[in-house]
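Archive entry. Fields below.
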Amino acid sequence: MKKIVLILPLILLTIICLFFLLFILLEKNPNEPPSALLYKDLPTFTSNNLYNKNINLGSNDLKEKYTLINFFASWCTPCRVEHHFFFEIKKENPDLFILGLAHKDDPNDSKKYLEEEGNPYSFVGLDQDGKIAFEFGVFGLPETFIVNSDGKIIFKHTGPLTKEIIKNEITKLF
Amino acid sequence: MKLQNFFKLLFFLLFFLLSLNSVAKESTEDRVKKLTLELRCMTCQNQSVSDSDSDFAKDISKIVEEKFKDGLSEKEIKIFLTDRYGEYILLNPYFNSKNLLLWLFPFVLVIASMFVFFKKIKKK
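PREDICTED_STRUCTURE:
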């Protein structure tokens, strides 16, 4: 009995350590770090249209409607993997505004990319200097955000979208 | 003679201003280096922004330099970055109520272990 009493604090400490370790590991997944912008207001930005630089679109234009924002580039191989999913999302949600932002890409290369893969976007904007991506806390392409009608970011995904993510996470948002 | 003194003075003045400029420049570089050592390169494996050559690290270093030149303090730049990338971008998380357990747990662990250890020794 005495032995158990002596060992008990150590057992308790080990259990606490294990819980603590689990908590740290669950919080710090390097592939999907927590987004600072989730459930926060859409950052302020303005982007020129890929096909006509006189036309631009800003964060104010995205109010009162659900918007999917996708950062892509012609040089980004994983972007090609997820690209066809945007046609499916658009088909299932015709009212959804899909904004594609060509990140640090040559406009001619972006145009060529969209000719090859098709253009599912409602508007294709330019982010040549990466300033818009910085405001969104983007660190790797592709990255996808969904903004609700109140202008709050309700979804963020780093990396290519998959069928499972669309079915289990995105579809539920609309 | 007076003209010679004037040129001497002008030379020293120029030298002084140029030295001040180079000191200020070095100081900004040092500050950028110091701060980027505390920032995580989010596209790398356990590397600081300062140690990495990735595009992300270069962009962040450039932004840090711009912000220092704009007159922002180290704390303000950290807030500016964490507003966008979250606390994850900091290699050393903030010492706040949210992270209190993270900071204090090693000390609690050491104290608890010592307590058990000394108790055992005393009994022996």
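CURATOR_NOTE: The longest strand of chain A covers residues 97-103.
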